[in-house]
Design brief:
By secondary structure, this protein is mainly β. Helices cover 3% and strands 46% of the residues. The strands form eleven sheets. Strands 41, 42, 43, 48, 49, 50 and 52 form a seven-stranded antiparallel β-sheet that branches. Strands 2, 4, 5, 7, 8 and 10 form a six-stranded antiparallel β-sheet that branches. Strands 1, 3, 6, 9 and 11 form a five-stranded antiparallel β-sheet that branches. The protein binds beta-D-fructofuranose.
């Protein structure tokens, strides 16, 4: 056979392609303010293209430019049509981006030629869950070339996913990236032989709905951004409960050429174990899940010699969703071992936030053989949204109470029960966030905390309500200035704002206005431990610190010991890193008490590390500034303004008797600063340059006296 010179071959291919491929024609890109010559009926499409999501809609992604057709105007209830002017089909393919509901005839776009619908396309979603992402799609219309046609976008559906999103309609000679058909309800059977099934995930891909059923019963159901080809990471699902049984794994829909289903693997270990906890953006001093998203800490409790950290967990995705209670245990509040999901979503809904108590006197009756049960109190956030119990005798396996729910829905916005034992009245107290309907004279929105009591954790009586707090209440008593005879109650909630006051076992009486608490960013939904063996009040908050590109996301902030301290304004909350931080120190640099002048030598020039704990107590002159340059990040104390400044963010940090005390802790996705004897707490999401490993301390203005100046290189909490 003769060979053809490669140059000639590629030239002829290019020429043929050029002949076949004429420039694409934009049918509509929906970038203008109005639909132009397109005509609407009904209300769902509004007067012109939308600019992304409409009120009440999840984030809409994947459209081109700024505008798109979005028939969610007025919610799923609204209906209508949007019809294009006639145009001539001049290319082989008609392509577009499409999302929303997947109901042919109801949420669809129709191609009409000579009065007949000749092609139809729908969005991908037919079931709850899913995503508002638009995906490329289109039709081969080569047999219709030369014909006159128009498009009708239809929204004739009023229930869930009763809307359609559409954008970027083009005529082209190359097949749109779609041209793959979507197969609905695909499934695969596997015999559970290993502990884990691993699902391929591509963060940002279309969300699919996966169910795993055994003997005809759906055991697991979740949304997941399945990778159709190469995954970013693998999400594990524990199937050990069904060892030896046949699992049917079904996906609501997949492109026909997707390898998602066939690539699901079984293994006894996790995929990526060799690099676990060593990933580039893995927090090294604070807890994050091995895989997936975390938000609120839940059920913080000391039980049988272990600290338990449960947490809002999406085991199958980088973003929020599929709420489970993940579970980790620790012997020292610093080193954590993640041991698998404690609560899976069920027919009552996803598992939202809540708390845990050790029922020492077995008031609940869940105890056995003299063993006190660990009781979890959580929100099942279905419809209705209700409060439920689960219990455990070993701190490993959890049984949901057959009599759930224990508190029926008050309003749809009721959640996050926090329970404690109130010794004086010998009963349990539960605080619950409840959004009441708007009412005359009530704040809008009408956020309240409801106080309940119970003799046995099962039967609850509403005793009082307090206004003004949103989500994740916590309520506890603390001595003022460690004086056991002078106790006050603190009510706080997700934002960390709080009030100090008194409590009679039924009603909280505030003695302060609502006070600001944390002064940083991205600290939310904190909770304190119950059943602490040493009476400390230790708090962990959710740190909203993204780990972009990683198979995990967000963290649980370094635990803080809380106290109430007197200030001229009254008692105020103070935070300190728990004392166990010292156990992580590997190399300490302590500088003699000294005075630093402007332009002086850096006293901590020999420090070198990624994970650093820096402590300084100093007495600044009225106009001096102390500058800590830590891992390339500037942290300043401005004594004129009495503020800590990090990355242009300012936090009030008053001098205490002329002194300032600062602790700085560095991790891979955040820094934390404590100042003013802990009255100022500044958790701060930030990713420092991994190559910047030094500390510089300098002074501007008048000299500053340091009574303490030390830096500790600390080690990772992970093995
Ligand atoms: C706070 C919150 C809670 C809820 C949970 C759901 O971050 O919205 O109110 O229980 O997250 O993940």
């Amino acid at each position: 056979m003769k060979t053809v010179a490669p140059i000639f071959l590629s030239l002829s291919v290019a020429l043929a392609a050029a002949r076949a491929q004429q420039p694409d024609i934009v049918v509509a890109d929906f970038e203008a303010e109005t639909y132009g010559a397109w005509k609407t009926t009904g209300t769902a499409f509004g007067r012109g293209p939308a600019r992304g999501a409409l009120p009440g809609q999840m984030a809409v992604e994947g459209f081109a430019g700024r505008g798109l057709v979005n028939s969610f105007l007025g919610g799923d209830k609204a209906t209508g049509t949007l019809t294009s002017p006639e145009f001539t089909i001049e290319r082989k393919f008609l392509s577009f981006l499409i999302g929303g509901g997947g109901f042919a005839g109801k949420t669809c776009v129709n191609l009409v030629v000579s009065g007949k619908i000749v092609r139809i396309a729908t969005g991908p979603n037919t079931e709850p869950g899913g995503s508002e992402r638009l995906e490329p799609s289109g039709w081969d219309v080569s047999e219709l070339t030369g014909k006159s046609a128009h498009l009708v976008v239809v929204d004739d559906a009023t229930g869930g996913w009763g809307h359609l999103n559409l954008d970027q309609i083009m005529q082209a000679d190359t097949a749109p990236p779609m041209a793959v058909k979507i197969a609905k309800g695909v499934s695969r059977e596997v015999v559970a032989e290993k502990r884990w099934l691993h699902f391929p995930v591509k963060t940002g891909a279309m969300k699919r709905v996966v169910t795993v059923s055994v003997d005809g019963k759906t055991e697991r159901r979740f949304d997941i951004e399945l990778a159709d080809a190469e995954p970013d990471w693998w999400a594990p699902l524990d199937v050990s409960a069904w060892a030896g049984k046949t699992l049917t794994i079904s996906v609501n829909q997949l492109p026909e050429n997707s390898t998602a289903l066939s690539s699901i693997k079984q293994a006894d270990g996790m995929i990526g174990a060799e690099n676990l906890y060593h990933e580039a953006l893995r927090p090294q001093l604070q807890f994050s899940a091995k895989r997936g998203w975390v938000n609120d800490p839940n059920g913080l409790v000391f039980f049988n010699g272990e600290y338990h950290l449960f947490f809002q967990h999406n085991p199958y995705g980088w973003s929020w969703g599929n709420m489970h209670w993940g579970h980790a245990v620790s012997r020292d509040l610093v080193h954590w071992e993640e041991i698998g999901e404690a609560l899976y979503p069920d027919d009552m809904g996803p598992m939202f936030s809540g708390s845990a108590v050790v029922d020492e006197q077995n008031t609940s009756g869940f105890g056995r053989d003299g063993k006190a049960p660990l009781v979890l109190i959580y929100t099942a956030a279905g419809n209705p949204t209700v409060q439920c119990l689960a219990y455990s005798l070993d701190g490993r396996t959890f049984t949901k109470f057959a009599g759930n729910p224990v508190i029926p829905q008050i309003t749809g916005g009721n959640r996050d029960p926090k329970v404690f034992w109130h010794a004086p009245s010998k009963r349990w107290v539960l605080t619950l966030y409840v959004q009441l309907p708007d009412a005359p004279g009530a704040p809008k929105p009408n956020h309240t905390i409801h106080f309940f009591t119970s003799p046995n954790l099962r039967d609850w009586t509403l005793r009082s309500t307090t206004p003004g707090f949103f989500e994740c209440p916590d309520f506890f008593e603390l001595p003022v200035d460690s004086d056991a005879a002078h106790q006050k109650w603190v009510l706080t909630a997700a934002s960390s704002e709080y009030q100090v006051g008194t409590f009679d076992g039924e009603k909280f009486t505030p003695e302060t206005p609502k006070l600001p608490a944390q002064r940083g960013r991205g600290f939310y939904a904190a909770q304190t431990f119950s059943g602490m063996p040493d009476g400390r009040r230790v708090q962990i908050g959710w740190g909203q610190c993204p780990s972009l590109g990683m198979p995990f996301n967000q963290l649980q902030c370094f635990p803080c010991e809380l106290s109430l301290r007197s200030t001229p304004g009254g008692p105020r909350l103070a935070w300190q890193p728990i004392a166990q931080l010292a156990s992580l120190r590997v190399k300490s640099h302590r500088h003699e008490p000294c005075t630093l002048n402007e332009g002086g030598k850096n006293p901590l020039s020999d420090v070198h590390g990624e994970l650093l704990e820096i402590r300084a107590d100093f007495t600044p002159a009225p106009n001096s500034e102390v500058l800590f340059k830590v891992r390339g990040v500037e942290i300043r104390y401005d004594s004129a303004k009495q503020e800590i400044v990090i990355d242009k963010h300012r936090a009030p940090a008053p001098l205490r008797d002329g002194h300032q005390s600062v602790i700085i802790l560095t991790d891979r996705t955040n820094f934390t600063i404590w100042a003013s004897d802990g009255l100022t707490y500044v958790p701060f999401p930030l990713i420092a340059n991994p190559k910047e490993l030094v500390v510089e301390i300098s002074v501007k203005g008048d000299a500053v006296k340091f009574s303490l100046l030390e830096a500790h290189e600390v080690k990772s909490i992970w093995p």
